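Reviewers of the previous submission asked for a worked example of the structure-prediction workflow described in the proposal, so we include one complete record here. The input consisted solely of the amino acid sequence. No template or homolog information was supplied to the procedure at any stage.
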Amino acid sequence: MAAFWQLVLENRGKALGIAGGLLFGLLFLTVGFFKTIAFSVFVATGYYIGRKFDNEEDIGEVLDRILPGKFTKR
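From that input alone, the workflow returned the following structure tokens.
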């Protein structure tokens, strides 16, 4: 079992790609194409906002660029 985890850690990108492909394949088979696409959009949006938090960027500025004037008062 230790050899398996060592292989996964040495090939992290490939392992994540396989896991992601497996997840989206299962979602496609169980809930359908359009719900899988909607799920993907939500995951990508969450990743984008989380990356902004990690980089300590102002979320208000990001949202103001996407939807000007909706989130900040001027």
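Residues 34 and 58 are 32 Å apart (CA to CA). We consider this example representative of the routine output the project will generate in years two and three.
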